[in-house]
Specification:
This protein is mostly helical. The chain contains three helices and no strands. The protein has a domain of 33 residues. The termini are far apart.
Length: 84
């Protein structure tokens, strides 16, 4: 006894793919008719840093460190009370 497969055959896959493409074309055309603009890139940019230059990154890092130092200088009496 052989079970019938639920997996679509090659012709069904091709017709579904073509129907999907036509639906996508229609959506794209409807958007253009309404004056909508397609995004220039479908994916996010592949970058690791949001800064435009080394100087901007250096300045931001210095500000972060200065803020941490300011906080740490304000907290030593509280931190030292916990030590025996």
């Amino acid at each position: 006894m052989k079970k019938n497969s639920h997996r679509p055959n090659r012709e069904q896959i091709k017709t579904k793919r073509e129907a999907d493409k036509q639906a996508q074309r229609k959506l794209r055309q409807d958007g253009q008719d309404k004056g909508l603009k397609e995004p220039s890139h479908a994916t996010i940019s592949n970058r690791k840093c949001e800064y435009k230059s080394v100087e901007q990154e250096r300045c931001a890092r210095n500000e972060a460190v200065a803020e941490k130092i300011r906080i740490f200088r304000a907290k030593p009496p509280v931190l030292l009370k916990g030590c025996p």
